[in-house]
Write a structure and sequence with these properties.
alpha/beta; 11-stranded mixed β-sheet; 15 helices; 37% helix; 13% strand
């Protein structure tokens, strides 16, 4: 028999959208895709440590049930979910029925409660027919932009395992980049979806605050968003459709949108007004390769028909606002821990809490007022633009190091990611998409920030860019 010149792809390398197309035609099944992903996890998890928990038997049972639903759909048109049979992972900050949520922390006893509640994001994924694989690694309580913790050790980057995948959704980003499930739920309190997506060459979307309901709400307050990690912009849009469904447990959530974010995704960006801001007016030390790749990306957006203007939004670096509010929240969490729990905490979280203990109520209120002024300024600035384009990060992926490797300061915590945290404060939708590789072969990300509530334009612009500037997947050894 003559071998096919085009061998069948490994199902673990396919996007969610590609898998759904194969399921519809009967060319592949959820069981086959789930088995392929589980084989990939078995091979790469010992190196990457992207997962804290893998439920292979549960995933196979869910895939088998999903396969039956697809068979019924092909037979008589019975309904299937929007993510029917797609393997998905959940960051270990998000409650998932039947699995402990350790939050990257040795302070949480997995046997101390029944773990019988799904967070809104998890519940919507189950309803959509997704196959839940397991929980992905996070630093303790999601406290930093790299993924290491005393509980799980070092999570590593699939492009180069000596490098960090970023954080705090580093497990999710590493899993998606390595083909250990095409979709993952992440959280983003200062860049924690976009940072690891940029380091790992994925798409990472932080929707407008409240677009994706949360329960319980983050102890770090109204800077924390939930959003998709994905292999493609279309997958991110598809996942957002599912995650954005209403849930009464989140009193801060936005009213539901009656829209499908995949509709109009390929309409292009001709005529959109984009503010290209390579430093936001204050960022220093942007890596030259990052700067060059993102400048080329801005020219690509212009070539696609957007009206790109080099302009800064006229803001000061809000690092002090971000870290002040963050450290105070860490101190609040710390105050709820016993002495025995504190003794096993991540030294970085302990250091954040100690810094937060120095901040009084007056300072917190002053920081909140400064945040409000920033938000108002950006709402006004966005009256003149549809999008802001910036580098996603100032640097490529750095070395993976254990917790406590550097003294905790505002600069060491977030100084290398000056483009992400402002938009947690302002709560605007923002996405990172790959825009190139360094000479060492590490991904570089472009960030696109939209008007509040306008995920549709953010996704459409990201899709337009992705369509002409694809970046290869990492070579997995």
């Amino acid at each position: 028999m003559t071998p096919s010149p085009h061998p069948a792809p490994d199902l673990a390398d396919l996007t969610a959208s590609e898998l759904l197309t194969l399921y519809r035609s009967g060319q592949a099944s959820p069981v086959e895709a789930t088995d392929a992903v589980l084989r990939r996890i078995e091979r790469l998890q010992p190196v990457l440590k992207a997962f804290t928990l893998v439920d292979a038997s549960g995933a196979r049972a869910a895939a088998l049930a999903s396969e039956s639903r697809w068979q019924a759909w092909r037979r008589d048109g019975s309904p299937v979910g929007a993510l029917e049979g797609v393997p998905v992972s959940i960051k270990d900050l998000v409650l998932t029925r039947g699995w402990p949520t350790r939050r990257g922390s040795r302070t949480i006893d997995p046997a101390a409660q029944p773990w019988d509640v799904d967070a809104p994001a998890t519940a919507r994924l189950r309803e959509a027919g997704a196959v839940l694989l397991g929980k992905t690694a996070t630093p303790e309580f999601g406290c930093k932009g790299e993924t290491n913790s005393p509980l799980t050790g070092l999570t590593r980057n699939p492009w180069d395992p000596t490098r960090s995948p970023g954080g705090s959704s580093g497990g999710s980003a590493a899993a998606v980049a390595a083909g250990m499930g095409p979709l993952s739920v992440g959280t983003d309190g200062a860049g924690s979806v976009r940072i690891p997506a940029a380091f790992c060459g994925n798409v990472g979307l932080k929707p407008s605050f409240g677009r994706v309901p949360a329960y319980p709400l983050s102890p770090f307050g109204t800077v924390s968003h939930l959003g998709p990690h994905a292999m493609s912009v279309r997958d991110a849009a598809l996942m957002l459709n599912v995650l954005a469904q209403p849930d009464a447990r989140d009193w801060t959530s936005l009213p539901p949108q009656a829209r499908d974010h995949t509709v109009g995704l390929d309409d292009g960006i001709r005529g959109l007004r984009i503010a290209w801001s390579p430093t936001l007016g204050y960022a220093r030390g942007v890596d030259p390769q990052v700067a060059a790749a993102c400048d080329a990306a801005a020219h690509t957006l212009q070539a696609l028909g957007a009206r790109v203007e080099a302009v800064d939004p006229g803001i000061e670096d809000p690092l002090e606002i971000t870290t002040g509010l963050w450290f105070f929240a860490a101190w609040t969490l710390w105050c709820g821990l016993s002495e025995a729990q504190r003794a096993v905490c991540d030294p970085d979280f302990a250091a954040q809490a100690e810094l937060g203990s120095r901040i009084d109520a007056l300072a917190v209120h002053q920081l909140t007022m400064r945040r409000g002024a920033l938000g108002s300024h950006m709402r006004q600035f966005m009256q003149g633009f549809d999008l802001i384009a910036t580098p996603a990060l100032a640097v490529p992926a750095f070395e993976a190091k254990p917790a406590g490797h550097t003294p905790m300061t505002p600069q060491s915590m977030l100084g290398w990611t000056p483009f992400t945290y402002p938009f947690n404060l302002t709560q605007q939708p923002a996405i990172t998409v790959p825009c190139g590789l360094t000479a060492e072969g590490l991904p570089i990300g472009l960030q696109l920030v939209g008007r509040m509530f306008d995920e549709a334009t953010v996704l459409r612009a990201a899709r337009a860019f992705e369509s002409v500037r694809p970046v290869p997947r990492p070579t997995l050894r």
